[in-house]
Amino acid sequence: MFFIRKANQNDVSDIAHIHFESWNATYSDLLPKTYRDKENNLSQKVNMWEKLLPSSGVSTWIAYNAEDTSVGFISYFKKDQECEISTLYLLPQYQNLGIGTKLMDAALIDASQCNSCSRLSLWVLKTNLSAITFYEKFGFESDGQYNEELYEDTKITDIRMVKAL
Fold it and tell me: What CATH number should be reported for the domain holding residue 88?
């Protein structure tokens, strides 16, 4: 059994750990190791979440199991008339158990209750087909926008997906 609740400052360490571990696992076959090593640092994740969690414009939900172990989280922020999901990560051993769906549902309900958000967007690595399929199940569609970065010999492309609220 898994539970979802709004994250608070006491969750910083757990969220940073999940973010670090999941990021490595998610992108192990999708991004070069040197890029992953450069971009994914546990102490940087802790510092980042120490600043983000208390921010009024950021909404973060955390999933935990019956033993009160944190296993995943989702975070979004408000930007103009839009809310943007910035992170959705689960520890690898807790993927494909419906927890990501529960986290997404929590964020969708929360964002839809925000009067200033008319749509929800996110950025996803173009080659992360399992994530794209997951988002499509919730009605997200690519809007044609993308960001490209050249790292060594690898072109890294993120695509934007949007959903009306």
Answer: 3.40.630.30
